[in-house]
TrEMBL record:
GO cellular component: HCN channel complex
Main localization of the protein described in the UniProt heading: membrane
Top-level taxon of the source organism: Eukaryota
Lineage: Eukaryota, Sar, Alveolata, Dinophyceae, Suessiales
Organism: Polarella glacialis (Dinoflagellate)
Protein name: Ion transport domain-containing protein
Length: 611
């Protein structure tokens, strides 16, 4: 007697489910009570909240780069400076705390994101805590010195002010964080052209920031007694407003970067400073020109490649005498394909993906395709039982299909050479049978599921109504993968699905679209409970099942009655004798054509068999 019939549970059928369950229990056992309590506060490193926080941190670093060197010009401390000082101080203090609750990519865990608070804290202490704590301590020490300055005597106040000015440059250590923040922000830019433009902008901003810092240092040297500039005519000329003094210093350093001297040094210290700036200007200028030239050349190459590709396409269309309407469709689809390539980098263009291990590529495909695949009830439950099998399905059977507006994916009565099931990723499609029945197919829906389980002839035509992206599941590869696992879920579901097609009766009721999603969930649940009586479907499915049990019974009785009226025939589809003789004359009407299509459907009334 079969295990399902006797009510016993076959251990081979629940092997993968048990292994998955023990793996989860082992993971939970490694978590301490601190991790369980604080888990809800942990933020993923690539989440939108963390991206916004990193962007704000980049703004704060840029503010420090501008304001801290300006202290050498003794600017007035107005309300804006007071508010921003406290804003940056509080931001970096909170950033120090938030760093204990930000996950990181663990190399020891094979690139998985570590979300345990204890592990995150240990990693943060080993890497960035010393630098961040030093910077935050200097910020709050500045507040303490400012408070002590008010109650100190003249001599003590002078020493405290000197200490305060010595501490403020330590805040520039945050520049080391700007590198990581910039890479993090640039990593979210999709277009290669935008990436190169951002790189050029970053080079220009770095050059301006360097000139800004050197200009402030030069002014401090000029007005100090060490620079021996006080009392000279040049020093008197720089006693204007902060803006005038800053522009004078900036102009002087900018002139040095291009090899021009607008003011000769008057002391050995000024001459030494000028020589150092000239050396820096030579090295930085060469690097700047080289990087800028490379970036601009890359932009020109991208633009020329696109122009040459479209020129070659136009020549081909012209040489082959392609009609104007089809040429426009081809060019429009080519532009859409290039736009999609900029938005979503295709896997074939990423060279490093070809050298990584096959299991890692399988995990990538699983994370990319499983959210869409598991919208189908069978794959949703099968992913709980055998996630390894679903990972192999995502890796070995799925490929992407891009369609332009008006493209026909398949036609009515067509028997596919390579049977496939389709999921709509984005865009809109229409499914029609004959001339009248037209149904919209929206993203998230699937089409032609029967191709996975039996030999199938399409019962309608599927046409794209906009630029559409599909995911296709190859039926033969799917069968090869399913036969390698001991679980019987796929076989039993395939039998129920084909029996449902055979019980449908008249061929007009057969379609490539979903036939009752709620009833399909009920059939899937029945299959999984036949294999494992202890299986529990999702809670929302249980509510749906209670409300649909009456309609399920009526459907089964109606299907049984229809089955008795269907004559037995061959179990495979055949197109022999399907197409009748051509209708002669010009008096054929829409009613006659519709009747012809009904006759063709009736001749397809063969009973499918399980693959």
């Amino acid at each position: 007697m079969d295990a399902a019939e006797s009510g016993a549970v076959d251990p081979n059928r629940t092997l993968l489910r048990s292994a998955s369950r023990h793996s989860l229990e082992g993971t939970d056992a490694k978590r301490s009570w601190i991790d369980n309590r604080l888990q809800r506060f942990v933020v993923q490193p690539s989440s939108s909240k963390r991206v916004f926080w990193e962007f704000m941190g980049l703004i704060m670093v840029c503010y420090d780069i501008v304001i801290i060197p300006l202290q050498l010009l003794d600017p007035p401390e107005d309300t804006f400076y007071f508010v921003m000082s406290w804003a940056t101080r509080m931001f970096w203090t909170l950033d120090l705390i938030f760093s204990f609750f930000t996950g990181y990519i663990s190399q020891a865990a094979q690139g998985m994101i570590e979300t345990r608070v204890t592990k995150i804290a240990v990693q943060f202490v080993k890497t960035r805590l010393a630098l961040d704590l030093t910077i935050v301590t200097c910020d709050w020490l500045e507040v303490v010195l400012q408070a002590a300055e008010g109650g100190a005597g003249n001599g003590n106040a002078f020493r405290l002010i000197s200490m305060l000015r010595a501490i403020r440059p330590f805040r520039l250590l945050r520049i080391t964080k700007a590198r990581n923040m910039t890479d993090f922000v640039l990593g979210h830019i999709r277009s290669e052209g935008a990436m190169i433009a951002s790189y050029v902008l970053a080079i220009v901003l770095m050059l301006i920031s360097m000139i800004h810092v050197i200009a402030c240092l030069w002014y401090g040297l000029l007005v100090s007694t060490w620079g021996s500039g006080k009392g000279s005519e040049r020093w008197e000329a720089m006693q204007g407003s902060v803006t005038e003094r800053y522009m004078y210093a900036f102009h002087f350093v900018l002139a040095l970067f291009v090899g021009e001297h607008i003011m000769l040094p008057q002391s050995i210290s000024q001459r030494f400073f000028t020589v150092v700036v000239l050396i820096i200007a030579f090295v930085v200028g060469a690097s700047f020109v080289g990087g800028l030239t490379t970036a601009m050349t890359r932009l020109q190459i991208i633009a020329s490649q696109r122009s040459s590709q479209f020129a070659a396409l136009n020549r081909y269309l012209s040489d082959c005498n392609i009609s104007r309407l089809l040429s426009i469709r081809v060019q429009r689809n080519a532009r859409h394909a290039l736009k999609e390539r900029k938005r979503n980098t295709p896997e074939s263009k990423v060279e490093l993906l070809q050298v990584i291990s096959e299991p890692l590529r399988a995990e990538i495909h699983y994370e990319v395709h499983s959210p869409l695949l598991t919208q189908h009830p069978f794959f949703k439950l099968y992913n709980q039982i055998n996630p390894v099998g679903v990972r192999h399905i995502c890796h070995a059977t799925i490929n992407q299909v891009n369609l332009s507006r008006g493209d026909i994916m398949f036609s009515e009565f067509e028997v596919p050479v390579q049977p496939k099931m389709f999921f709509v990723v984005n865009g809109h499609m229409s499914y029609s049978r004959g001339f009248f029945d037209t149904v919209k197919v929206n993203p998230g829906q699937w089409v032609s599921e029967a191709a996975l389980w039996t030999t199938w002839a399409h019962r309608g035509s599927l046409q794209s109504r906009s630029e559409t992206q599909l995911v296709a599941v190859d039926a033969q590869r799917f069968i090869n993968i399913m036969t390698t696992y001991p679980t019987l879920h796929a076989h039993l579901y395939g039998e129920k699905f084909v029996n449902f097609l055979n019980q449908a009766g008249h061929t007009d009721s057969l379609t490539d679209l979903v036939q009752g999603e709620d009833m399909q969930k009920i059939r899937v649940t029945q299959v999984f409970r036949e294999v494992d009586p202890l299986f529990e479907p999702p809670s929302d499915w249980l509510k749906m099942r209670r409300s649909s049990v009456v309609s399920d019974g009526s459907l089964q009785s109606a299907a049984a009655g229809a089955k008795s009226s269907v004559p037995e025939s061959d179990t495979r589809f055949s197109f022999t004798g399907l197409i009748p003789d051509a209708v002669h004359g010009i008096r054929a009407t829409a009613k006659t054509l519709t009747k012809r299509f009904r006759v063709m459907r009736e001749r397809l009334s063969t009973r499918p068999e399980v693959r």
